[in-house]
Each structure stands twice: as structure tokens, then as C-alpha cells.
Amino acid sequence: MTHSYSENARDKKALLVGGALIILVSVYFVGKNIFFNKKDSIQSSAPALVDKKSGVPLMEPGVLLKKIQNGDAVALLDVRNEELFQTAHLPHSLNFPIGSLENFSPAKDEAVVIVFSENDPRVFEAAKNIMNQKSFAYFFLKGGIEGWQSLNAPIISAGDPNSFIDQSKVIYIKVEEYKKLLGQNNQNIFLLDVQTENNFKNKHLKGAVNIPLDQLEKRFGEIPAGKQIIVYGENDLVSFHGGVHLSDLGVFSARSLNGNYLSAESGLSLEP
Fold this sequence. Notes:
CATH class of the largest domain: Alpha Beta
Number of strands: 15
Strand order of the largest sheet: 1-2-7-6-3-5
Oligomer: single chain
Structural class: alpha/beta
Largest sheet: 6 strands, mixed
């Protein structure tokens, strides 16, 4: 059976209309997906929380922890005083007390998070006023450092010798045991001296590498992986602090030298 010219024309027209509808529907759904993906992107980049009382953007401690674990670029600015900062602070955070906070400028694509203490509303208010003048995006850590600690997230502490928790972070090694390791010609030992630079120059164990305690976090990359870390300082207390600091930085197998190791009676080789 043959089709007439009008029937063929009608069929072609139907095909054209159908094709046009398919294209329109495809464009609609593609456009819809682009729009919502863009919307989701905007929403994800916007502050998840805003403090109702102060109006500052907040970041949950769990969100911050995940960003750090993912290796995201984050600038952690601790606005507490130096004494409180040294007592306990977030790993790789920077101490920017109120007097210096206004001088900070972030690197490109760096998320800025302000760390404060909920126990000091005066410092919080001062930090809020300073950050309100900034043109870059920032967050305040929700709950302050107390909120971070309640999460049992990593913290760098000074180390309290009377604290059971801090003592549990340290593995001690006596001088005689250390001498036995040396007698085995153990090439896997990394002897870390956390004395001040001046004290190190005056007296230290032969073969030790000096990274002062207050620089340990900053120069952490200089400590080799896969080595047996033996740490010591001017005395047993500093040696203890070195062990706590390394444990807080994730080096759980480090051993703190204990005893009269910097005296001639120890039998250890001293320099200079």
C-alpha cells in the first residue's frame, strides 16, 4: 500500500514535532540539573551555621576535623593568650592574640577558622569585631576549644607530669637500656634533642638532632618515619614534655630518655 504525498508530509511533520519535544525535554532536565548542582554548590560553600546571638558564622568541630583529615587548606587562628595556647591548642594552629589578629591575611582558597575559649567572652567579642572588618570569609569554631576537646579530637598539650592521661602518653627508657641499644649498633635510632638551642650548644648527646620543644610542631616534618625515636631534654621533665608532644602529634612509639643522661657519670658520649 502506497502513502499519498499529504500523508508523507504529515508523518514528517509529526517526526519533527516529536524530535523538537525530545530536545526541549532534554534541555529542561540538563538545565535543571545544572541549576540545582550550582545551588547545592552555593549552599555547601555557605556557612552551615550562624550563631543566633552574635551573628558570626560557625563551623562544627566534626566538620573541621574532617577538613583537616582530608588535607584541606585551613588556617587555624587561636586568639587566646600565649600561656593558654601553650597549655593546649589544636595541632598546627597559629597563636594570634587579639593584638595581632587584625594583621592576618589568608592564603588563596584557605578556610579561616577562629579558635577561642567560651570561658572568655571578652576575647570572643574583640575577635568578632576585628573579623567583621575583614573582606575574606571566616568561621568561628562552634563551642570554642572546649567544643573541640569534648569531641576528643587531637590536641597539643604542654604535658602535666601529675596527669595520669599525660603520663600514659609517654614510654620511658632508662640510660642503661639505651646504652644496650647503642651497643647493638642499631642504625634505626633517631636521637631527638628538644633542649633550647643554647643548651644544646653547651652540652648534648653525641649524634643527637636538635629540634627545640617549642619548635617541635612546626618542624615535625624533619623527624623521619620508620625510625625508633628517642627523645630527651635538659632534664627528665623536658624529656617528659617531649614525649607528650610527640604522642600528641601521632608518634606513639617514641621513648623518653630518663635518668642522669647528660652527666659524665652516665657513660654516654657527650658533645662538644
